[in-house]
Amino acid sequence: MMLVAGIFISCEKDDPGEIPGEIPGMGNAGGELEVLEPFVLPEGISIVGEITGINGTQGTLDGGISPYMESSVKAKYDKEITRGSGDNDVVLDFVIENSTSVTKEFFLPRGCVFKCLSEGRQNGLSCQKILIRVLAGIRLKLRLHCHCLNKGIPGSSLETEYEIMGVSSSKRITKLVEKLESKKIDISDFSPEEKGKYKEISTRIKKIVHSITNGSGVKDSDWKYIKSLKER
Predict the structure, then answer these.
(1) In this predicted structure, what is the pLDDT of residue 74?
(2) Which of 8-17, 70-79, 216-225 has the lowest average pLDDT?
(3) pTM of the predicted model, to two decimals?
């Protein structure tokens, strides 16, 4: 009886109460992405124009700033940064304006999801908390490498637009991003010479995300891999 109880408790602990592959807005499950609460920008900060995708083959995976800028966002900007831990499947461009006379800081929270407004395209996930610092009176262009949430369908392109939804309410996604929070996986953590290592890590994490969205769940070997990643 004690053995059975132990097994039950163990299974209960590992089971977050949702079925992999059946999470709304992810994989092939259909439905809309569900969030704990909507994402809200701080006072004085706004997004100029739309959040647009870019052609994945033009994404920046070398830790540097890409000169490529052909998205539908035509707004002038003063500075550009590249962040995120995804590969080139879902790459987003948006221009953030600080209309105040003081520097503003805010976070894109871990587990933040981005809904694609174009039918039949990938939704995106930001795995780590990302600090955005916008100097007074300037426009900052953020290029964000997201992880894709719908294996098997096309990623971002110049014709796609996205909306920031907020932090995913998926318990499985929450557990994953909690484990990834302190790890060295952001593109800004890697030098141009470490491009290959970054691609290796982002590809492995993508497969782990897809095990939740399109598969049967994260395996023990995947958790061990995440644990083995370097701390920031």
Answers:
(1) 52
(2) 8-17
(3) 0.86
Tell me what pLDDT residue 71 has: 43
**What one-character-per-residue DSSP string does the chain give?**
-HHHHHHHHHHHHH--SS-TT--TTSTT--S---EEEE--PPTTEEEEEEEEE--GGG---SSS------SS-----SEEEEEES--SSEEEEEEEEE-SSS-EEEEEPTTEEEEESSTTS--EEE-S-EEEEE-TT-EEEEEEEEEESSTTS----TT-EEEEEEEE--HHHHHHHHHHTTBS-SGGGS-GGGHHHHHHHHHHHHHHHHHHHTSS---HHHHHHHHHSPB-
Q: Say if residues 111 and 126 touch (Cβ distance below 8 Å).
A: yes
Length of the chain: 232
Note the pLDDT of residue 73: 45
Contact 167, 36 (CB under 8 A): yes
pLDDT per residue as tens digits for the range 179-200: 999 999 999 999 999 999 999 9
Give the mean model confidence (pLDDT) for residues 129-154: 96
Domain positions in the chain: 19-228
203, 188, 181, 187: which is closest to 89 by C-alpha?
Answer: 203
